Amino acid sequence: MGVRIAEEWLHSCSGCEISILNTGEALLDLLAKIDLVHIPVLMDHKYYGQLGDDKELKIPEAVVGIVSGGVANKEHMEVLLEMRKKCKVLVALGTCATHGGLPALMNEWGMKKGMEDYYKTPTTEPCEVPNEVVPAPLDRVYAVDEKVKVDLMLPGCPPNPALIAEVLTALLDGRDPVIPGKSVCDTCPTQRKGKGGVSDVRRFVQNAQYDSEKPLDEMRCLLEQGLMCMGPVTAAGCASGDNGCAPSCISARVPCRGCFGPVRKDGNQMLDMMNALASNGIDWKTVVDRRSLLRFSGAHDLLRKRSTRKTTEE
Ligand code: SF4
Ligand code: SF4
Ligand code: SF4
Predict the structure, then answer these.
(1) Which domain holds residue 159?
(2) Which of 53, 196, 222, 262 has the fewest other C-beta atoms within 10 Å?
(3) Going by CA atoms, what residue is nearest to atom 6 of ligand 2?
(4) Residue whose CA lies nearest to ligand 3 atom number 5
(5) Ligand 2 pocket test: which of 195, 223, 243 has the largest number of ligand atoms within 8 Å of its C-beta?
(6) What pLDDT sits at residue 311?
């Protein structure tokens, strides 16, 4: 019998689950050592008993629990608490689970106003916000560690399949997983020459300057070209695997958008990026929408409702 593993998705798009499947050959090796006792994306499971007549939600016991997605409603909360109760080790998988991810953009308005705006938008036939059958929303979108104790965070949108395989293999081997702890910049081969004489942030409506015939290490750093590349404030992790060991977006010669979340677990990508811009001699006031820098990490009360936000960024 293998090590029992349970997986759940909360406020998730299933991209994290696809990343688990994309671990490829490593998954074949792992399957010989694990028992997937619960994974709704792959197999049916009746939460309230086979006939639906149980009173309490039940998930089988497991050694390792993996949770993707943030926590946005009461059903997510119930499932998460059950996962924490039944799993010895809990892994938060993907940036939605570790930092709120894209759904936490809603935190700028709060769930109530966001839902009202969505359902009552003047461009469609206005209707009431559903409040029957669907689970009641929480006040905002939370990262998983805001609600329960998390043993291991593995961000990325989607997370890197090679790192998922490494985490699971390490847990099975009883060792600490090797996870890159540095920033995207630390894995980036582009040329850095110091302050580049660019004083304003350029909107990415025109390509970066590079010679497509020449390798990546002959392209100048995108931030030094004045593009909003969030490599300095974003956790490394996308560079390992099949992309030639350069960060994914930089390989495509486009700026990092910050999808692995902050370098430090409790970092603030918006404030840290303002510092990074200043260090590069770029005027941070030329950033059009600073809040958008929290597009992947708006949980942990970083992206607050406009009326209650305490920062003076406006
Ligand atoms: S982290 Fe990205 S891939 Fe994973 S659930 Fe969230 S949006 Fe989807
Ligand atoms: S800012 Fe962007 S382009 Fe420059 S080194 Fe960092 S990741 Fe690479
Ligand atoms: S370069 Fe940045 S945005 Fe692109 S995959 Fe890597 S962490 Fe995500």
Answers:
(1) 3-173
(2) 53
(3) 185
(4) 248
(5) 223
(6) 47
**Alpha-carbon gap, residue 86 to 56, rounded angstroms:** 14
In a domain, 54, yes or no: yes
User: In the listed set 173, 200, 230, which residue is the last one of a domain according to the structure?
Assistant: 173
Q: Is 223 helix (H, G, I), strand (E, B) or coil?
A: coil
Q: Which CATH number belongs to the domain containing residue 157 in this structure?
A: 3.40.50.700
In this structure, are 18 and 158 located in the same domain?
yes
Q: Distance of CA 225 to CAs 32, 187, 230, 249, Å? A: 49, 18, 13, 16
Q: In this predicted model, what pLDDT tens digit does every residue of 294-314 receive, in sequence order?
A: 999 999 999 987 765 554 443
pLDDT digits (tens, 9 = 90+) for 257-297: 999 999 988 899 999 999 999 988 898 888 988 999 999 99
Note the pLDDT of residue 68: 98
The predicted model gives 162-183 an average pLDDT of 91
From ligand 1's centre to the CA of 19, what distance in Å?
A: 10
Structural domain tally of the chain? 2
Indicate whether 312 belongs to any domain: no
- Non-local CB neighbours of 276 within 8 Å, separated by 6+ positions: 223, 232, 233
Contact 231 CB / ligand 2 (< 6 Å)? yes
Cβ–Cβ < 8 Å for 81, 142: no
Q: Which of ligand 1's atoms lies nearest the C-alpha of 16?
A: 4
Mean pLDDT in the chain? 91
Pair (242, 129) in one structural domain: no
Cβ(61)–Cβ(86) under 8 Å?
yes
Assess whether 128 and 227 both reside in one domain. no
Residue ending a domain, among 124, 155, 173, is 173
Segment 134-162, tens digit of pLDDT? 999 999 999 999 999 999 999 999 999 99
103 lines ligand 1 (CB under 6 A): no
Cβ of 155 closer than 6 Å to ligand 3, yes or no, is no
Same domain (yes/no): 88, 209: no
Within 8 A by CB and 6+ apart from 279, the residues are: none
The percent of residues above 90 in pLDDT, for the chain, comes to 72
